[in-house]
Amino acid sequence: MTLRGCDELIPQADWVKKLQKSEASGEPLRIKLGLDPTAPDIHIGHTVVLNKMRQLQDLGHTVIFLIGDFTTTIGDPSGRNSTRPPLTREQIEANAQTYYKQASLVLDPARTEIRYNSEWSDPLGTRGLIQLAAKYTVARMMERNDFHDRFHAGTPISVHEFLYPLMQGYDSVALKSDLELGGTDQKFNLLMGRHLQAEYGQEPQCILTMPLLEGLDGVEKMSKSKNNYIGISEEPNTMFAKVLSISDVLMWRWYTLLSFKSEAEIAALKAEVEGGRNPKDAKVALAREITARFHSTQAADAAEQDFANRSKGGVPDEIPEVQLALAEDGAPMGIGALLKAAGLAASSGEGNRLIDGGGVRVDSSVVSDKGLKLAAGTYVVQVGKRKFARVTLG
């Protein structure tokens, strides 16, 4: 269960010993995940590590969801080619409020320990910080890829950035962590926890890194900036349709990293597909599981029905109602202007490009004439597979 989908487990032999010790003593292991509230919400790519936490939680271990309200004031330099601007206390507090609410859609709130690293980082004080900094060398810190590359490129590195991995490592000391999870980009910070625990006379934690989830395009990692993501607060219909849009190859990767089905269940499903079953059946099952997790079973049922309706050219039961005014003389409105005014296209020009691509329908008929003008009345306007509006011109 620990190894499923993981990138690295370091050192694996120590983790086996910890599991054996836990089983013999009846004491659950302490498993830590730290997240800095740098943004107000998360996408399903962020839940890959949360899923692993839930799997270990279901095995009876203690999971600690650590909100890095102190470390966020420093700014994580991982993977950065410039200094990350620190957030204000107000921004951090606002983001932290939504983080755990969203994480609770994956973790069992009743069995999750919630901590904030300001609990022990603020009382550390200047003297404690200097003593902590004495436990690691500048030479070792400069082995870190992002610091090494920035130094040799002549890009500035602020002294406070060296404090980030030290403070994240100190979290493991404060929490007496047995295992810390993170993305592959966090390996240096996670290893720092092992080092500092040994310095403080504790048994060093093991570290488990999870791969970064590929987005909808199947190429780049899931990212809002690349618009290849599924937000966990997105509408059920949109979430369901986006999962169905991924490739058949990417689907199995998502099954491993996002599904709570056992590996045996996934293998059986994959064998059925290889034996001739339509891969869409497996993708629908995945879309249902993910949509139900972040909404409800009923919402997943409705989203599946909505997708089926759209596939057949049908109109969803609920679509936005838009009222638009014609010119004072009652002259008809051009289709490009209507698409922009109804919020179905960013501009009239984009609307025209959508028409050229055959992506616009009015009352289920494909629009091929960019010069189309619509008189007063009510029309169901569709752009692509997922955008609809019932537009009333008057």
UniProtKB/TrEMBL annotation:
Keyword tRNA processing: no
Molecular function via GO: ATP binding; RNA binding; tyrosine-tRNA ligase activity
Gene Ontology cellular component terms for the protein in this record: cytosol
Annotated Pfam families: tRNA-synt_1b
EC number assigned by the record: 6.1.1.1
Principal place of residence: cytoplasm
Protein's UniProt keywords contain Aminoacyl-tRNA synthetase: yes
Native source organism of the sequence: Pseudorhodoferax soli
Annotated residues for binding of ATP: K224
Free-text function comment from the UniProt entry: Catalyzes the attachment of tyrosine to tRNA(Tyr) in a two-step reaction: tyrosine is first activated by ATP to form Tyr-AMP and then transferred to the acceptor end of tRNA(Tyr).
Gene3D superfamilies referenced in this protein's UniProt entry, alphabetically: HUPs, RNA-binding S4 domain, Tyrosyl-Transfer RNA Synthetase
Keywords: Aminoacyl-tRNA synthetase, ATP-binding, Cytoplasm, Ligase, Nucleotide-binding, Protein biosynthesis, RNA-binding
Name the UniProt record assigns to this protein: Tyrosine--tRNA ligase
Motif 'HIGH' region, chain ranges: 37-46
Catalytic activity entry: tRNA(Tyr) + L-tyrosine + ATP = L-tyrosyl-tRNA(Tyr) + AMP + diphosphate + H(+)
NCBIfam families: tyrS
Chain positions of motif 'KMSKS' region: 221-225
